[in-house]
From TrEMBL:
<keyword id="KW-0805">Transcription regulation</keyword>
<dbReference type="Pfam" id="PF12802">
    <property type="entry name" value="MarR_2"/>
</dbReference>
<dbReference type="GO" id="GO:0003677">
    <property type="term" value="F:DNA binding"/>
</dbReference>
<dbReference type="InterPro" id="IPR036390">
    <property type="entry name" value="WH_DNA-bd_sf"/>
</dbReference>
<dbReference type="InterPro" id="IPR036388">
    <property type="entry name" value="WH-like_DNA-bd_sf"/>
</dbReference>
<keyword id="KW-0238">DNA-binding</keyword>
<feature type="domain" description="HTH marR-type">
    <location>
        <begin position="44"/>
        <end position="179"/>
    </location>
</feature>
<dbReference type="GO" id="GO:0003700">
    <property type="term" value="F:DNA-binding transcription factor activity"/>
</dbReference>
<dbReference type="InterPro" id="IPR000835">
    <property type="entry name" value="HTH_MarR-typ"/>
</dbReference>
<protein>
    <submittedName>
        <fullName>MarR family transcriptional regulator</fullName>
    </submittedName>
</protein>
<keyword id="KW-0804">Transcription</keyword>
Length: 186
């Protein structure tokens, strides 16, 4: 049995017991480095290697669900951001850009593609006539209303191997790491 203690800077958050893990590729890499360079602590490779591998696997699974709805991840992100903004489901391109954490060029390309498909419209802003607002069309509403439940169900499926305590520990560990790296409030 392996025991995992999740801590934040000042407090212990959880102690969780896990069965011994099955060795994987990264365990072998770390063991090889241990033999080759015993003076070097390569334990971070276990974390970052698994994060990279997990990202690739999860990204492929998420994209598969988006594709079933004729979307890619960036398009889903824009439609979902507009939907969760609430009525009138309208934001400025800058608001979308900040939410998606992308450049203005990237958001413009996304909006061009979505507008060409009739999923969003761009209209003059009521608050600032020099600015344009982006709004979901009825077709955009219908598409995100179909895609969102499938996306959430897919995320649940991807996390099905973790119990609630494991999910909570993972969330807290990632939150602590993000905070340490300066992204805690983002």
């Amino acid at each position: 049995m392996t025991w995992l203690t999740v801590t934040s800077s000042l407090r212990k958050l959880a102690v969780i017991a896990y069965p011994e893990p099955v060795a994987d590729h990264l365990d072998r890499v770390v063991a090889q480095w241990g033999a080759e360079r015993p003076d070097l602590d390569v334990s971070p490779m276990e974390v970052f290697g698994r994060l990279k591998r997990l990202f690739r696997l999860v990204d492929a699974e998420l994209n598969r669900t988006f594709a079933e709805h004729g979307l890619d991840a960036p398009s889903f992100d824009v439609l979902a951001t507009l939907k969760r903004s609430g009525p009138p489901y309208r934001l400025t391109p800058t608001g979308l850009m900040e939410s998606a954490m992308v450049t203005s060029g990237a958001i413009t390309q996304r909006l061009d593609r979505l507008e060409a498909r009739g999923l969003v419209t761009r209209t003059r802003s009521d608050q600032d006539r020099r600015s344009r607002d982006v709004e979901l069309t009825p077709e955009g509403h219908a598409l995100i209303d179909r895609a969102l439940p499938a996306h959430v169900a897919n995320e649940h499926r991807l996390l099905a191997g973790l119990d609630e305590a494991q999910k909570a520990a993972l969330i807290e560990a990632m939150r602590a790491l993000l905070e340490d790296l300066g992204e805690g409030s983002g």
